[in-house]
Design goal:
Mean pLDDT: 97
Strand content: over 45%
CATH superfamily: Jelly Rolls
Distance between the termini: 23 Å
CATH architecture: Sandwich
Radius of gyration: 13 Å
Largest sheet: 5 strands, antiparallel
CATH topology: Jelly Rolls
Length: 97
């Protein structure tokens, strides 16, 4: 799989492709185009990398702007949400269980 191929973005919903998942790790490619999210409170740590586009995360009341090449580490149970994604925002997310 090439992360930059078959990029069929939707303005109606995010598209998540699971690249790898086992008992210790999950890797996802996420295609966003203008979406935001509710608050997440996850049991696992998460590392996010913006491969294309821009986004803004909110964590613990602080806004974190991310552009192409930026990454951010979210600890387990750190409440966070996506406030904004540009059109054609491509993420790589790694969850550590």
């Amino acid at each position: 799989m090439n992360l930059f191929e078959t990029l069929n973005f939707s303005k109606d919903f995010e598209i998540t492709d699971t690249i790898l998942e086992n008992e210790k790790i999950k890797i996802e490619r996420i295609l966003s185009s203008g979406q935001s999210s509710d608050v997440y409170d996850q049991n696992e740590d998460e590392w996010v990398l913006v491969l294309e586009g821009e986004s803004v995360l909110e964590t613990e009341g602080k806004e974190i702007p991310l552009k192409k090449g930026d990454h951010y580490y979210i600890k387990a149970h750190e409440k966070h949400r996506v406030l904004y994604t540009s059109e054609n925002c491509l993420w790589l997310c790694i969850f550590v269980k």
